[in-house]
Amino acid sequence: MRKRLVAGNWKMYKTPTEARMWFRDLVAKLPQTQAEPALLVPFTHLPYAAEILEGHGVYWGAQDVSAHNEGAYTGEVSAKMLADLACKYTIVGHSERRSYHAESDALVAQKARRLLEHGIVPILCVGEPLEVREAGHHVEYTLRQLEGSLEGVHPPSASSLVIAYEPVWAIGTGKTATPEDAEAMHRAIRGWLAGRYSSDFADQLRILYGGSVKPDNATALFSQPNIDGGLVGGASLKLEDYIKLLLA
Ligand code: PGA
């Protein structure tokens, strides 16, 4: 019912030239898969993504967006610009933005609203830091973050929003949540969404797991009933690994 999404978060890696070659290689080697491939790349790589990936069943998008529509905001990129490059998805509220750029839940919600206004699906990230997990407060913490980050966010359908649960302690560390721990959090998130929107909406919405997803742990994670794919950093940079994830 929910199509698995394998979303690569390239972070600040690869040059546009490298990306162009990688996209061409992916299109040439793309396997038959039930999963939906998507790549969230630096802004500079998006025109190449639009040119090369179009029509191949691979989707693309950015890793952040401005909270403003347009104007004198030096250095920012608007949702309208991303829509013009046919972005299907864009990440908001990644923990690296929240911690290095002090992004609040309210700002993340504003960004999500901008994307929806332009028909782009926000991949909204939430997840607890290590000390919160150790204190056993990870569910309340994550649901509170979700609530704040969805303030005033009214997706027209369940397919116009994706949630990514990414425990901060698992990102880029090689430590993954166990499939059971991840599943428990995904179930809690889905339950919360049912109350916030409706149970139909919650049943149809995709919730991704992120944090050190690799070819050797992806199958166990993705086979959990409430895990609908992954938001993958490191392992999405190597073509062979990314292809393995599409087949996991
Ligand atoms: P990782 O990153 O797969 O390298 O842990 C995931 C993410 O930050 O989205």
Tell me what portion of residues adopts beta-strand conformation: 5-15%
Heteromolecules bound: 2-phosphoglycolic acid
Name the shape in a single word: globular
Strand order of the largest sheet: 1-2-3-4-5-6-7-8
* Low-confidence region ranges: none
Explained architecture:
It contains eleven helices and eight strands. With 248 residues, the protein is of the alpha/beta class. An eight-stranded parallel barrel has the order 1-2-3-4-5-6-7-8, surrounded by six helices. Helix 2 links the parallel strand 2 (36-40) and strand 3 (59-62). Helix 1 (16-29) packs parallel to helix 2 (46-53). It is globular, with a radius of gyration of 17 Å. The chain starts with a strand and ends with a helix. The mean pLDDT is 97. 2-phosphoglycolic acid binds next to strand 8.
Keywords:
single chain; 248 residues; alpha/beta; globular; binds 2-phosphoglycolic acid
Layout of strands and helices, then pairs:
Blueprint lengths: L4 E5 L6 H14 L6 E5 L5 H8 L5 E4 L16 H6 L4 E4 L2 H6 L4 H13 L3 E6 L3 H5 L3 H12 L12 E4 L13 H18 L2 H6 L1 E5 L4 H8 L6 E4 L6 H9 L1
Parallel strand pairs: 1-2, 1-8, 2-3, 3-4, 4-5, 5-6, 6-7, 7-8
Helix pairs in contact: 1-2, 5-7, 7-8
The chain binds 2-phosphoglycolic acid (PGA).
The site of 2-phosphoglycolic acid (PGA) has 13 residues, from strand 8.
Short synopsis of the structure:
44% of the residues are buried.
